[in-house]
Each structure stands twice: as C-alpha cells, then as structure tokens.
Design goal:
The complex is a heterodimer of chains A (669) and B (219).
Chain A (H helix, E strand, L loop, with lengths): L6 H21 L4 H26 L5 E5 L8 E5 L1 H24 L5 H23 L3 H19 L6 H28 L8 H6 L4 H19 L8 H7 L2 H26 L5 H24 L3 H28 L3 H36 L10 H4 L1 H14 L6 H14 L7 H33 L16 H19 L1 H16 L4 H4 L19 H22 L25 H11 L5 E5 L11 E5 L1 H22 L6 H19 L1
Antiparallel strand pairs in A: 1-2, 3-4
Helix pairs in contact in A: 1-2, 1-4, 2-3, 2-4, 3-4, 3-10, 3-13, 3-18, 4-5, 4-10, 5-6, 5-10, 6-8, 6-9, 8-10, 9-10, 9-12, 10-12, 10-13, 11-12, 11-17, 12-13, 12-17, 13-15, 13-16, 13-18, 13-19, 15-17, 15-18, 16-17, 16-18
Chain B lengths: L3 H22 L3 H26 L3 H28 L11 H25 L8 H17 L3 H23 L4 H29 L14
The chains are: A mainly alpha (669), B mainly alpha (219).
Chain lengths: 669, 219
C-alpha cells in the first residue's frame, strides 16, 4: 500500500531530486558533455513534474507539512496553497524550458566549472521552491539566503572578469540589505509573540502604525530583490553577467519570488490593507516601469537591454499590485481582482517571454561571441530557428496580440480605465494618469524591442565573422520552442488561465474574476462585462493567419514572374555596405534626445581633423550618483570614525572593557 | 556576634584584598608571582574553612583544585617561563604607583557600594566579603591595564579569576562543580596559550613590551 501522498510531498521529492542532481554534477565533472546532456534534461523533467503537480494543486486546497530539520525544537513548516502553487507552476514551466536549453548551452563548458554550475543551478531552483513553500519566517529566510548565495555564485561563473566580480558584489550587497528588511518585517509582524510561523503572523493584530511599518519593510526588502526603483542598480549589472540560462532564470523566475513575498505579506499575513500602501506601490511601480523602459531603449548591450526591460516589467506588475491594494482597501473588489489578475498574469507571462529572450541572446552569444548590438546584424539568415522563436518573444514582450504580453497589459489597462468612483478625489484624478504611464511604458517597450530584434536579426551583418554564425542545436531549439509555445498558448487561451488564477485571488481577497471574464465562453475574454470590452485572441489569431496567408498567396501568385531584382536608385551610394545601416545608438537617438534629463550621458566627439576618429557615448544611471554614492560615502565616513577606536594598544582595549564593565555595573545597580 | 569561622574567613578576605593591592604596587615580576601564589593559598584556605563550616563537600574539591592549580602549578609554570624568557627585571607601569593605588581605593569603594544590595539578598555566612571579592576583581583588571609588559598582564588575568572564584564562594557557596572545573581548565589553557604567545611576541619584537604590538594596527 502506497501511503496517501499529498502534492506537497511530491514537490519535496522533486526538491530532493534536484539536490541529488546537483551533487551528481560534482561527481560527473570529468564528462562535461554527459553531465550537461544527462543531468539538465533530468532536472527539466523534474520541473515539468512540478508544473503538473502544482497545476493539479492550484484548486486543491491547502496542504501543510512539517519537516523535522533545522534547529532543535524549531522544525521547518511548509505550506502549499493556491498562491504558492501558482508561483510554483510559473517556476516549473519556465525552468523546464531553461533546463532543456541548458543541456545544449552548457555542453561546451569546461568540466570543473560545469560541475559547480550544475550544483549551484539546482540548488538555486530548489531554494526558490522552498521560498515559495515556506510557512515560517525561519525556513523562508534560510531558503531566501540560499537562493541569494547560489545565484551569486551563478552570476560570478566567469569570476576571472573583474566587471563580473564587481557586479556579483553589488548583487550580493543589495540582496543582503534587502534580506535585512525582510527579516525586520517578519520580526515586526510576529508582534512580540516569539513564534515565527506564518500561522501566528496571520493571527497577529497589528496597529495601523506597525502594519504600515511591516508593509514598508516588506516593500523595501522584496523591492530590493525585484529591482524596484532606487534599489534596481544591481539588476542591469548582475543579470547580463550570468550565463544566459541563468539570466533567464533570475529574470524570469527569481524576480517573481519577490513578487510572491510581497503578495504573501500584504494580502495573506497582514490582515488589513491601507490605501496609501497601494498608492505608494503604484507610484513606485510606474516610476520603475518608465525608468526601466527608457534605459532599455538606449542600451547597446543586448543582455543589459533585456535586464532593464525586466525592471520595466516588474514595475508593471507592482503597479498592478498597487492598484489591487488601493481598490481592495476601498472595498471595490471587482476592480481589485482585475488588477491583481493582471499583475499575476503579467508575472507568468514575463517568466516565459523574458526567459525566451534571454535564452535567445544566449544562442546569439554562443554563435557569434558578441553581445554588443553594434557588432551584430542580419542573423535571421544564419540562425533562422532562433530568429523565428525570438520573434515570438519579441512580439509578446512588445504587447502585440495574439501573444501573452498583450493580454496582461490589456487587463491592467482595463483595470486602470474602468476605475469606479473611488471615495478619494485625488486618487480618482491620478489613477487615469497611471494608465497613461502604462501605455507610454508599453509603447516604449515595443520601441526597445524593435531595436533589439531589428538590430540583431534584420539588416545586414555588421562584422565578417557573423557570416560563420551557426544556428542553435536541438536542445536549445527545444527549450526556445517550449518557451515560445507557452507565450502563444498563454496568449490564445486567457480565459482558461484566468479560471486558474481565480484560485489565487480567492485566497488573496476572496473574490474571483472567472465568472465575469469567462462570461461569454472560453473564446471571448470579457474582463468586466461583454458590453464594456471583449477580446478573442483565437479569432484574432485566425484573422492574422488568414490575412498573412492571403497576402502571401497574392504576392506569390499574382506577382509571380513579375518579381525582378534590379539596382535601386543608389542616391550617390553606389556601394551599400553594412556600415550604412541604422545602428543601435542611431535608432535610440530620438529617445536619448527627448528624455535627456533622465539619463546621465557622457559623450566624446572626435574633432573633424582627427585622422583616426573615435566616438564614445555612454549612458549612465543618474541614480547611481544621486543615491548610491552618497550612501557609500556616509558608510565609509562612519567606518572611519569607528576605526579610530583601534589604537593597537592592549591597555586601551582593556580600558574599553573595564569602563564598559564599570558602567554596566553602575547601571545594574 | 559573628561566629569564629566567619571571622576567620573575613580575615582571609582582608588578606586577599591586601595582596591585590600589593600586586598592584609590586614592580618586580618575581615578587608578583609569589604574591599570586600567596593569593591562591589564601583563597584555598578560606574555601576550605567555608566548606568545613557549612558542610558543603564540593568546596573541599574546589579548595584542593585551587591549591594544586594556583598555588603550585601556575606559579611554577610562570617561574619557569620567566627563567626561560629571562625577564626578571623591574616592571614599568604606565602611571606612577601612588596614583594607581588611589584609583584602586576608588574602585574598592565602588565595589563595596555595588555589593551592598547583593549581599543583603544572599544567605551565606560570609556574605559581607562579596564586596572584597568584587574589589579584587576590579583591582586585578586595573593591574592588567596599567602594566606594560605581557607577563604581569597575564598574572592580572589569573588574579582576576581568583577574585571571581572568591565572589562565587562568598555569594552562593561556590559555583556548581562543572562550572568550576570548566573555569579551571580555561585558566590552565589560557596560561599555556599565553606562554606560547610570550615566546612568539619575543621572537617577533625582541622584547615582551606590548607597546610594540601597536605596529600591528592597520592604517
């Protein structure tokens, strides 16, 4: 007789399996090809199993487990409910594609590095699962730190490069500052009861002041992990530094654990929400989104571009959550649920399309060894598979129907625009402005993505070596294909997704969207009511397909035979070279011009008489000077003051403890 | 009327304090070690008397331990050390000795003042000696601060442990045996480590004067 196993037991089994795979990676160091092609696909199967189990568990109520690990008398509490199941589903789905891709990508790596990478990679995903399952602050922090440390080592895989070490340090620093915020948040929330399980925190009655303190600490701590505005500096450094599958994992999945944490604390652990928390989250989210997308638009390193775009997407998700908090605080549940569904949906979408794009850059990087957009171009001819699959991701992230990005951004805009009269005049006026900001961010994201795709894949090759670029291997195609298929499926069947998401919103605010969203059947998505707005991705997709087909046939049949190639007007350029194409910098020049005050631009222009002209332009993050450097300076100064206590004389040190002793004795008396 | 045994213990307590002051003012290392041995002897005898009076058997072991460790073994070790290191000369102090003694008197007043409420709570026959015990701890600490050479500092450290031991005996008839054994072991190991350090310090700096260690400071 098999014991009656709960979904949470299967998930723990998968975690153990991943840890075993990580250790096996150390054993198999000598055979890197075997290691990559055996262990990573096995890990991917584990991820697929996780996705299947959690999909079943989404509507299956809550399971709990207690693991007798950790400190004596302080076991680990675990809990699987709809919120964690949703994020585990996201993790499983994305990790499957990334691990399959990794089997191909890591194949050529050196053995010892790969063995360690395999260990850290699986430790990383296992710790993310434990973060999502944790039901006490103790396990949460242990898993959270394991996640931060394993990802730090993944980021610094190429630790011989000084910039990467610097990026890793910055990441570790901000991750730890954030972790302190989270720790303090849990400390406040347990309300002096001395019990750090989430069950106690749910019951704790906090005064509005302490509840606000908890929320602000959570926003700070999780915001540091998510890349919320002034704490985003690590993200564009660390994500590009890691190997591409790891970047995909960090950007697509790890950032979502921060979203999970914020939702868990705000909606589950804190009983009540105040409206200004939502307003703060909304404003910060919108600022983050705009800031991220503006910087994404002017980057000329493809992975940095994607990293900034991750900041933008996190901003959009946080804006949705902020909106949800505002509406929930004013008991406008119908719109609150719409905003939350949009945020959750976007989190899911971002995992897939950003994962896809990062994996795509990995293939480009492998094929060409180049990540600067200025040296790429025309790869669609050399790498058709990657080009087509990345195109799917590009369209999805740009928010074009019928792909998934459109659905969530559309839902979020609906939530913004269908604002009922809130009992707060300023909010009523400000929230539609937020819709404008979201629309601007979406448009700029499309702009940045046109640049990303156009410069890498279209046009002509900018360097000779690009002619020898090879397409991705089978494993990589499979991984990319899975992510692209997920982007399409999530875009085509939104009603089915929303019906699953209802389990989560039911848990968070006790309300669901499925009844109104699926009002007109699975074909039509009607967020509030059919007469307000509706969208049918399948029909739209069919129309697009039919339109494309007709165009293709029309061009082929009607113009067939009359198609001829001839020299176009050469306009004084008889020889067209790849250097005449629009460059990445050229393409983003208008944005740089328009938003100049936002950027810190450093430009060196050559003199007209220079025989070897050299142009150098750099866009710096202004917040670095405004926010980080002053803090670093103050820290250094304080450390200098404390350093003065060090005299090197034992008598002085003894005197310190003597005086302390006397003072304490006098005080005790 | 205080019973005879308690008067005897009070006498030994007074001797302990006197020796602590003597150590504070002693310039020669050899005499310092002898004073330390004497302090240990006084401690051992007073513990024995307390044990006999109150029928606390574990105090006998404490007394024996003190006798073996602090009267015989550690002084012998220290004698051997200074012979090997050849540091029998006078000790320089940081302040002049009279002002150190004045500070010591202030400390004794402070310690008595501090011990007053505690000794009222305590139920032992020798509770009034708690102030003396604390004073000798503080005086030993003061000695560590004011000495420039490494060996007297270590003796100060060991003497401080004597004071602590006496405090424990006078307030609660001694600590549990396990704790006492643990502390004894600590002192022993500490003495060994210090002994090793002396050699290393001398090898590195050609002197046992700890002012050379200022060079280790990070700039």
């Amino acid at each position: 007789m098999a014991p009656n196993l709960l979904p949470i037991d299967y998930i723990l089994g998968i975690v153990v399996f991943w840890l075993a795979l990580g250790l096996a990676g150390l054993v198999l160091q000598r055979q890197p090809r075997l290691l990559a092609q055996l262990l990573f696909p096995a890990g991917a199967l584990g991820a697929l199993a996780l996705a299947v189990v959690t999909l079943g568990a989404l509507g299956g109520g809550t399971n709990v487990a207690v693991l007798p690990l950790g400190l004596p008398d302080l076991p680990f509490h675990l809990r699987l409910d709809a919120l964690s199941a949703f994020f585990l589903l996201l993790l499983g789905g994305a990790v499957f594609g990334i691990s399959v891709y990794g089997a191909g990508y890591f194949r050529t790596m050196e053995g010892s590095t790969l063995g360690l990478l395999c260990l850290e990679y699986h430790l990383f995903i296992a710790s993310m699962v434990l973060v999502l399952l944790a039901d006490d602050a103790y396990l949460f922090m242990v898993a959270w730190e394991a996640m931060a440390l394993s990802s730090y080592f993944l980021v610094t895989t190429d630790h011989k490069v000084p910039e990467i070490r610097r990026a890793g340090f910055l990441y570790l620093l901000i991750a730890h500052v954030g972790a302190i915020g989270i720790l303090l948040c849990f400390g406040v929330m347990q309300g002096g009861q001395g019990d750090y399980s989430f069950a106690t925190m749910r019951q704790a009655e906090l005064s509005p002041f302490w509840a606000s303190a908890t929320f602000l600490l959570a926003l700070f701590g999780f915001g540091a992990k998510a890349g919320l505005l002034p704490l985003h500096a690590w993200l564009p450094e660390a994500h590009p530094a890691a190997p591409s599958p790891v970047s995909a994992l960090m950007s697509g999945v790890m950032l979502k654990t921060a979203i999970y944490g914020l939702l868990r604390v705000t909606f589950d652990l804190l009983g009540t929400q105040l409206w200004w928390w939502g307003a703060l989250t909304l404003v910060l989210g919108l600022m983050t989104a705009l800031y991220g997308v503006l910087f994404a638009a002017v980057q000329s390193d493809m992975k940095r571009l994607l990293a900034y775009s991750s900041i933008e997407n996190i901003g959009i998700i946080l804006a949705g959550i902020g909106l949800g908090i505002i509406f929930h605080a004013f008991h406008q549940e119908a719109v609150a649920v719409l905003a939350l569904v949009a945020a959750l949906y976007h989190a899911l979408n971002h995992a897939f399309f950003k994962g896809l794009l990062f994996l795509g850059t990995g293939s480009v990087l492998h094929a060409t060894g180049e990540r600067n957009l200025g040296h790429l171009g025309g790869l669609i001819r050399r790498m058709p598979w990657v080009a087509v699959l990345v195109l799917v991701g590009t369209l999805a992230i740009a928010g074009l129907p019928p792909f998934n990005g459109f659905v969530s951004e559309w839902l979020l805009l609906q939530a913004f625009l269908l604002t009922p009269a809130l009992p707060h005049p300023y909010l009523n006026m400000m929230i539609p402005l937020g819709a404008a900001a979201i629309a601007l961010a979406a448009a700029l994201a499309a702009y940045a993505m046109v640049k990303f795709y156009g410069v890498i894949f279209l046009g002509q090759h900018r360097e000779e070596k690009l002619l020898h670029a090879h397409d991705a291997g089978n494993w990589e195609r499979l991984g990319l294909g899975w992510m692209a298929a997920a982007c399409l499926a999530l875009g085509l069947f939104p009603v089915a997704v929303i019906l699953q998401l209802d389990n989560v919103t039911q848990l968070l605010i006790g309300r669901e969207l499925g009844s109104s969203a699926g009002h007109a059947g699975w074909l039509w998505l009607t967020p509030v009511a059919p007469e307000r707005a509706s969208y049918s991705p399948v029909i739209l997709f069919l129309i697009i397909l039919v339109g494309l087909g007709f165009t293709f046939i029309a061009v082929r049949k009607l113009y067939h035979g009359r198609l001829r190639r001839g020299a176009p007007w050469d306009c004084g350029f008889p020889a067209q070279t790849p250097r005449m194409q629009d460059t990445a910098e050229g393409f983003s020049q208008p944005i740089r011009q328009i938003f100049e005050p936002v950027f810190g631009i450093i430009r060196e222009l050559p003199s007209p008489f220079d025989t070897h002209p050299h142009y150098h332009g750099e866009t710096r993050d202004r917040l670095w000077n405004l926010f980080y450097l002053p803090i670093a300076a103050v820290t250094e100064k304080l450390s200098g003051l404390i350093g003065k206590l060090q005299h090197g004389r034992i008598s002085i040190y003894l005197l310190y403890s003597f005086i302390t002793l006397l003072a304490l004795l006098a005080f005790v008396r | 009327m205080i019973p005879f045994s308690a008067q005897l213990v009070n006498l030994f307590a007074a001797l302990l304090l006197l020796i602590a002051f003597a150590m504070l003012s002693q310039r020669r290392i050899l005499s310092l070690i002898n004073l330390f041995a004497m302090q240990g002897l006084v401690l051992s005898v007073s513990t024995l008397i307390v044990g006999l009076t109150t029928q606390q058997h574990h105090l006998y072991y404490s007394a024996a331990l003190t006798l073996v460790l602090k009267v015989i073994f550690l002084p012998w070790l220290l004698h051997r050390l200074i012979r090997k290191l050849n540091v029998k000369w006078d000790v320089e102090t940081m302040f002049n000795i009279p002002s150190t003694m004045l500070i010591g008197i202030v400390l004794v007043v402070f310690a008595f003042n501090l011990a007053l409420p505690i000794s009222q709570l305590s139920g032992t026959i020798i509770r009034s000696t708690l102030g003396i015990a604390m004073a000798s701890v503080l005086l030993s600490f003061l000695m560590m601060i004011t000495r420039r050479k490494a060996v007297p500092q270590v003796i100060g450290f060991l003497a401080m442990e004597n004071g602590l031991f006496f405090a424990a005996t006078s307030a609660t008839y001694g600590m549990p045996m396990v704790v006492e054994l643990g502390i004894a072991l600590d002192v022993l190991v500490g003495a060994f480590i210090f002994g090793i350090f002396f050699f290393h310090i001398r090898e590195t700096f050609d002197s046992l004067d700890i002012k050379h260690m200022e060079r280790l400071k990070e700039d």
